[in-house]
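User: Can you recover a sequence for this backbone? Please restate the input before giving your answer.

Assistant: Of course. Working from this structure:
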């Protein structure tokens, strides 16, 4: 059984798609399960002005990507780097043990995109 918040993010994903003219993007794949996540973002000064995602994977992967975009939208790069998998788990209500990889994939992809900002 999935948490209601997780199902809401899966059924009504926020910020799905790609940023038209991104300042940075990153794509990561979990080789164990095949989930793929791409994050693109645009900055204004030191803040994330727009962030979007494309996900191919399980329910938890889509939900975590959606929740992550809401968690970091408008934050500074430094604040976004402080977001942890545990914060993401709280945002989606909970993750089953077999879905923990989805939260980690989202965090790793975000950090790779932030690294692209320089």
């Amino acid at each position: 059984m999935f948490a209601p918040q997780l199902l809401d993010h899966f059924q009504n994903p926020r910020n799905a798609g790609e940023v038209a003219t991104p300042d940075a993007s990153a794509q990561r794949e979990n080789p164990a399960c095949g989930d793929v996540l791409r994050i693109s973002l645009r900055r204004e000064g030191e803040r994330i002005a727009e962030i979007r995602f494309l996900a191919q994977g399980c329910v938890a992967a889509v939900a975590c990507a959606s929740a992550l975009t809401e968690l970091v939208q408008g934050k500074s790069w430094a604040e976004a780097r402080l977001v942890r998998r545990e914060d993401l788990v709280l945002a989606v209500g909970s993750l089953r043990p077999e879905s923990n990889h989805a939260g980690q994939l989202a965090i790793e992809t975000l950090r790779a995109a932030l690294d692209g900002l320089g």
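That completes the design. The CA atoms of residues 95 and 116 lie 29 Å apart.
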